[in-house]
């Protein structure tokens, strides 16, 4: 993760030092907030956008600011309050923010911002150690149904995408999601060690994080959360195994509340142009992100549905008081 | 801290002299323990397996209560190490400088003004009286730091009116 | 095994070319220059400077990268020693004795022992990496939550070495740190503790904010409050600028012991660099023949932790190279070094691309050596910083100290915490409470708690899990012995004294 940030810094520095952008740059001067510390996923997304927007000549300048804190709760509060009606500001966010806002009882919600577009997504995977008796997602489902307490899931922070996925899995196969034994670890490294060492039954993470271990045969992937098989991924989806679990860890960009429809169109057009630029495609390739562009009202719709879904799951596992 | 300079102070009454500061410290620890328990009591018990989030605060609170008692006994016996006299003025000057820094950052005055204010007050606290010269030094140093971060490292420090001129 | 040597020799041959040596020198210089800024640890230093390496050929770029990395590490220790402002939590133990040495005019030997100790530890640990990695990683993966908890117990027991002369005041400091460690979102359930509805507190107390507040700000306040007693004159150099024969004699064993702590614990996926540095500090304090110097600037207290810090950084390469696991920010930077070439470290890397693995390791050796070449002559220059007149020196320290926080988290809440911790550090100094245990409590408390709760969740609440794992049972035994040993030894000592 950090490595890509470094590459990015490289590009940014290169831009600053020499490479003058296209001469016919537009007059758009944007401020882009990453509601996280430098280096994380949202920061990388923001800085990649900065790079692509400037390189493709969509904007004349883009300034990235970091407002870290509590899964984006601090950033969005500042964004909604101080950027209201400003058509030159945007904020990066993603799946994790939905859960974080609900869990932290944030007074500000994602209903208040103006959706612009979804940019990228990563599919999720469930793995078991190579010597586990569980061979398929159905085996795991059976184990969960037999005694849910004994099936321990290792994954990322409480209420994050991995946790939501564990609860969805249990619920989908007909067990009581409230009873899942989910054990949050800080960072992929620690949870991977716990899985490899056989301390837990199964592990949940983004696919890219465990891909090397899966290919090396140390972990067995039971299923991925994409709707169809993805090119180059030789792992069955949950759907084809009869478990209706479709989920992705997405990242998107939003604008402040109270902007005019014209301002919204300017920003949407800029993002759309950026997504189609070669600079952006190059960045996606470098970082191994999947293009998941979804613009306009379709995204607004998607966002609403995700908020409802995630909040329901978190209520079901007792992380959010209903 | 340094017993060799303690001779400057009037000699302390030997034993059995209640140390008021020590009593205050013990009380503060007890209050902290109470806060921990109060905060833990508000935590919903949602944990299905193992230990909940409320267990550890209670354990720590118990430890704090015991330590409060220990500190209280030390204070009542006058067992605390000797303290030298202190000059509160420079301390307040520096704290004022920190408060000024926070206020300037909070109101969007920018990095250069905020850290310059801290530099000048600290320097004054350490006995400098040449405020104008120090102001000049502070502005130059902090501007250089700002430029190094902003231009070379592309990390954005808070910008105010001065930074926008650069 | 022979292949290992051959591959390493080949990597060395590449790295020793004159052009590559120059790149190493430039890398070390840039890394040191940026690394001395507080709040910018080695990870961020490399992140910021990595772009510089892009324009070079792969060999040169890898070497400059290694140079920046080692330079950044060393830069962080420099500020810890000179101005009591540890740039990252791993160099905090260094600040304890290192700054005392600097104040006593022995900043030169402190910087030298830290540079040479880093070199020695880095070299030994890199050799360990080359030969022990496959075996060590097996061990590391088997380390479960209950074992980590037991390791924390060992750490907690040895922490008492930083307590000073009153156990009550030492424990009070530790418990204040533990309390601060509770602040924020609970990792296992997502519930907020002690956040009082302030969103900025949800992420908990930042270790660097606490350390810089207590150490640097607290110190400035304390020195200012006592200025009327007598102007404290800092002498940059008293005695030799270099390490004396005595310094060498007292340093080499701590270097080796620090390496022994740092390398294996660094190899654990959740081991980190803080625990080995403090274990090393405590051990040196116990073993030293000059206990009276501890707290006033004992060179063992600098040599050991610095070696442990560097060895643990090499230790993190074990899971990185064999499993593809970046277990620390430092390791994540190493990963970056690989990904520049489209390589993904993991189980297959040693088999598939030994040339690059050994190229990187050879670069680390070279950079490590270059650090000595560049920085030992600079020691004299660094300690001159202390000759700056006191008002400007402390004003500069405070600007530097706040700058780190402003750069990382420019919020009013975070800065207020920094100021509050500064006042706390001042009061603790005034009332003679030791400072280090607060920071240790903040670091260790949350780890111990989450690992214990993970272990209990996996075992469905059965505490026997702590004794069923042989590793955990052994470590708990060690903790118990370490707890009782001082009393037993004291008894023995009295017995011996009677005999004399």
Overview of the molecule:
With 322 residues, chain A is of the alpha/beta class. Chain A is 43% helix and 21% strand. Chain A has helices spanning 2-17, 41-55, 73-82, 95-103, 137-146, 161-172, 187-196, 207-215, 261-276, 278-287, 296-316, and strands spanning 29-34, 61-66, 89-94, 114-129, 152-155, 181-184, 202-206, 219-224, 248-255, 290-295. Mean pLDDT of chain A is 81; it is low at 1-25. Chain B contains six helices and no strands. In chain B, 36% of the residues are buried. Chain C has helices at residues 2-15, 18-35, 42-53, 58-83, 92-103, 107-142, 145-159, 167-182, 207-225, 245-267, 274-287, 300-315, 317-323, 329-339, 349-352, 354-384, 390-408, 412-430, 436-458, 465-468, 470-499; strands at 184-185, 192-193. In chain C, a hairpin with a 6-residue loop joins β1 and β2. Chain C is mainly α. Helix content of chain C is 74%, strand content 1%. At the B-C interface, α1, α2, α3, α4 and α5 of B face α8, α9, α17, α18 and α19 of C.
Structural class of chain A: alpha/beta
Radius of gyration of chain A: 20 Å
The low-confidence runs of chain A, each spanning 5 or more residues with pLDDT under 50, are 1-25
The CATH topology of the largest domain in chain A comes to D-Maltodextrin-Binding Protein, domain 2
* Helix-residue proportion of chain B: 55-70%
What are the low-pLDDT stretches of chain B, counting only 5+ consecutive residues below 50? 1-15
What's the rounded overall pLDDT mean of chain A? 81
Main beta sheet of chain A: strand number and arrangement? Answer: 10 strands, mixed
Number of helices of chain B: 6
First and last CA, distance of chain A: 35 Å
Count the domains of chain A: 2
Q: Secondary-structure element sequence of chain A? A: HEHEHEHEHEHEHEHEEHHEH
What is the number of beta strands of chain A?
A: 10
Secondary-structure element order of chain B, N to C:
HHHHHH
Total beta-strand segments of chain B? 0
Portion in strands of chain A: 15-25%
Architecture per CATH nomenclature, i.e. the level-2 architecture of the largest domain in chain A = 3-Layer(aba) Sandwich
Greatest interface by residues involved: B-C, 74 and 65 residues
